Amino acid sequence: MTAHVNYSQRDEIRDYWSDRAETFDLQVGHEIFSERERAAWHALISRHLGPGAGRASLDLACGTGVISHLMHDLGFVVTGLDWSEAMLAKARAKAQKRSADIRFIMRDAERTLEDKRSYDVIVTRHLVWTLLDPKAAFAEWFSLLKPGGSVLVIDGDFVSRNWATRMREVWEKLTAGKSRVSDNDGAAMARRHQNILARVYFSGGARAEEIVRLLAEAGFDQPVVDWKLGAIHRAQARQMSWPKALERATQHRFAICATKPQ
Questions:
Q1: Which end of the chain is less enclosed by CB atoms within 10 A, N or C?
Q2: Would you place residue 181 in the very low, low, confident or very high pLDDT band (cuts 50, 70, 90)?
Q3: What is the 3-state secondary structure (H, E, C) of 95-150?
Q4: Domain total in the chain
Q5: Residue 169, SS3?
Q6: pTM listed for this prediction
């Protein structure tokens, strides 16, 4: 019992994602499984952040380094930050295999300990919906950017259930045991995920309008919401069951780009 006295919610979240590391890249939406999807991601990043041109970029909650490598492809000098050493081990192995000069560090995305005004751009994918304190996180990210720098948040409401979610659940019950590939890591991991989700800031689902409001409160100018993620979703759909692809296409998914004033 004593060993767990100082075991925080942050520790619990870190350990959950560390346990997910081994199979993380097997899931569509985590790793990239086609050049078509890779090109769609490159297009999304480029239209909001412009050319890399050696500019300093920070990939927050980089996981196994998928977005870090996309940024590196585009010519950014990349730092990938995550607080799971298991995830970072996967990311470093990819970088070594691809001879990609990417700096990976183990830190908390809400308390990075990085130098102020040291980055031209910050990018996050599927991080904001898991934050415990987005107000503090956005203030931290604002401080890390150089004047005129931009943050790109790629996220969504993965909590709210719609008609497509219910259809997918029915289909999965009917086909249970027939598919070779599972979309989750089992009942125990699902329970851990739900327990954590119930206590994060966006426990009811991350909505674009609330994130825009919080970014503006942190001092960012001109948050722009981009709903045009269809090219990415269509490429991913080729690797998914049709009910899962339909659910993804109907979810509240978005990219938000905001700029630090000059």
A1: N
A2: very low
A3: HHHHCCCCEEEECECCECCCCCCCEEEEEEECCHHHCCCHHHHHHHHHHHEEEEEE
A4: 1
A5: helix
A6: 0.90
